[in-house]
Records
---
Amino acid sequence: MEAIKCINCGSDTTSKFCPECGQRTGVKRITFREGWNDFWARVYGFDGMFPNTLRDLTIKPGKASQLFIDGNRIKYYGPIGYFFLMITLLYLVGSLLDITIVEFMKSAGKSMSVTQAKAGSEQEKFGEMIVQYISDNLKLVTFLSIPLQAFTSRYLFFRKSNLNYFEHTILPFYVQGHIYWLSIFSLIIFSLSGTFMNAVISAFISLAYFGYGYADLFTYQSKVKAFFKGIGVYLTSQLLLMILLFFLLIAAILLFPEVREMFKPIK
């Protein structure tokens, strides 16, 4: 095959993709078919990156994480990219179905809450403010949990794993991102039936998947032990996050009178 010059970087290439920059060499004039092919090339990646990521994170999340840690950067989407892609997809599906993330979070909170704040109370207003803030800043709030999970995994539960702190972030990014499929399916179920997926069931599936991911990644001990340690990583990191948020809330109450007003006893 005769070498041609890459339209992007000018390198000589004889393959379908430029070995220097990844640009497709067989680019044609813009037509519906060409646009469709370009779309699927970006969705699937050069070697089926997207379906590989979906499949392997579903059936072997630990092995996929280990492969990325070992240096393979082609087979799967990067963990951080996949994490933010799934949050973006959640918002996109919600927008297409005309369902707000605030509505979704309120439904989940009600199904998991034992007591409800009095209607019209300052506590209810504060709760709604928190839900709105989390909805508006979901990427940031969820992202903040990853360092805590990596810390808990690296220094408490899997100290003998020989992975450094940053390598311990790979599995949480992948797992947390993949769990958003449950929320997406819940939005679809709501659009069809008017009822969200039960939050308790969703939480149970998420917790089990998190434990399975760690059992699949750390094979130097029994899978059962690694499974429950993985659950321990998640629960401990959530506890640390709650403690952190508690102290931030105390600081807000002390510093801002309007927040302090919301916590006065209901008469």
---
Amino acid sequence: MKRGMLSAQAVGLLLLVPPPLFWAGNFIVGRAMRGEVPPFTLSFWRWAVALCCLLPFAWGAMRRDRALYWAHRWRVARITLAGVVAFTSLVYVGLQWTAAANGLLLNSFIPILILLFGALFFGQRLVPAQVFGLALSFAGVLTIVLHGEWARLLALDVSAGDLLVFAAMVCWAFYTLWLRGIPPEIDRLGLMGVQAGLGLLVLGPLCLAERAAGLVPSWSGESLAALAYLGVFPSVFAYLFYTLGVARVGAARAGLFIHLIPVFGVALAVAFLRETLHPYHGVGIAAILGGIACAVRSR
């Protein structure tokens, strides 16, 4: 019994590694596409591609669990609005104005918000190891984002883009916590299909309003390739793995893995943008991994 529980925990932790990688790519692509595809249009077509990928595999579960969806309709609606509609749209809108460093810094607040909201609204108890691990990993994030120069923290300006990205982080924190309320008998792949479908019903009018305002996308081979990436990896695989990981290890531990986004962001920048890896990157990554190790070992 105990060995089986440990195995489930290990699987859950492994499932939480790919989502930060895919979401790091999401920030890079979202920032790169800001001049070609308007934010609500990008969010709509991202989830349209995701739904097309999900339906062949999720349709059977969606039909089978439709009574459960209705029985828990408000929970399903909450996680859809928070995790699919609000989070992705606010990130893409915010990336129109905020700098990359600001976006990464604000993104690192997600584990803090999960622990804070969990303690305030969901009765979750914080243990010292979680608090220490959170502080250590957050210090690692700041080291990477600030290039090892802590004086830069005072120079970060708060803009409309910063506030929008921060609002997206709040939405993701609640999405993570609300996921725990979804009964385990609901198939997670089918649930993803339902979320994508419901999200499109909300994003559709927003996309049309954006177009009516004169914001028309400029489609090209590059933008279509970016859309394909957004629709498959950050939308399908990342959400599915994250949902399964939350179910196995809990919201607080799962949220801490968000700190891996800037780690993977540095790796992607080195691999695709040929940027140089500096000593502060190594210090920051070591602190992040050390913080995650402290938190996941806590009970």
---
Amino acid sequence: MNPEKNKIVILGAGNVATQLGLALYENEFPIIQVYSRTLASAEILGKQLKTAYTANIQDINTEADMYIFAIKDSALPSVLKNMPPANKSLWVHVAGSVPLDVFAGYTERYGVLYPLQTFSKSRKISFSNIPFFIEANNSADELLLENVAFSLSDKVMRFSSEKRKLLHLAAVFACNFTNHLYTLSTQILEKHGIDRNILLPLIQETAFKINDLHPRDAQTGPAVRNDDEMIGQHLEILDNQPLMKEIYRLLSESISRDKINGERDT
């Protein structure tokens, strides 16, 4: 893809739209407009990308070569229904769990450009090692998306919608659920006036060591040791927090069962 000849409209102004938009902008892709359902968010990203912006879907520029839909999965069908026709352009979404054929009937050319990473508006990260998973309804556009992805990252793969859905499920466990556990651990500490940053070396080592070990082999703690006494003490502390207590119990049971299954496999 020649960025001098392919004009892009970004739909959305959230975490993914912001960071992907900035990455494309820094790699000299011409972004000609940003759309968001709220004018304030459209304006913020539009000014960051030094481009036009709108909150009116009927005012979307119809002269772009590519439309990147970086919006909530649940909002995508409604946006597609109200999009101005641009049937010669390539329409692309960036979601892990949304199938390719969500675009069928709305445009002739469509694809997926899915970056497997967690994004926040305020935290800039390098795209160079973020895996991209692409898909398109024709080979020419699949190659085009591959070229776009390779201009941002060294890791680009072609994945079907079904494989991408499984990947997204795994990512929710690895990222979203893990981060929520950080939140719960922070609540325990802050309730008793303990600085949450004291956990950072532990969190970092836990993440780093699976570069060298299978996660099952890296598992530590009372559940993998079958330390029922310690587990009982922890559950007692959580008596007044039934939801957190149940999470602790279920995770401990899952760790214990996984250890048994691992021993059977060896």
---
Amino acid sequence: MNAAFNKMKQDIKEEAIAKKAARLIRIRPSMTLATTFDGDPWAAPVYYAGTGRGLYFFSNPQSRHIQDAIASGNAACAVYEESTDWENLRGLQMSGVIRPVPAGMEAAAAVSAYVRKFPFIRAFFKAALKPDLAGFQRLFHAGLYCFVPRRIYYTDNSFQFGFRRQVRRKALFP
């Protein structure tokens, strides 16, 4: 009986942590991507929308972080709340891959989520240009990419200093 209770208590903790992690993805506007190629690291902040399989963002296909990520097949990402108090430091640390998202249903859903998260983006589009994948490509010379996490860790000093727990991918990206 005690083992079953402890397992239920652990599951509730995992669910609460997953909810906090999902909230962080929802409310934070930007993530920091980290890439490396030939031992030379690079970091780049980008706006993103979390939906479906991962974190979707627009970037120039010739940018260093895109070129490095495609060449190496690896990337890392951090999403975090800024705070000057150590007790309020919380965030996500993820490793995974960055992949281009071609036109289609996935791209349409990602662009829609992106425009919902960043409604100011509509001001960039004129009446003749829609805020869809083709419109973003023409206006910003940017491609749509998805950071697909392989491993996800949630950190939260409000639980205790240095608290860090792995979050199952399916809990954030079903």
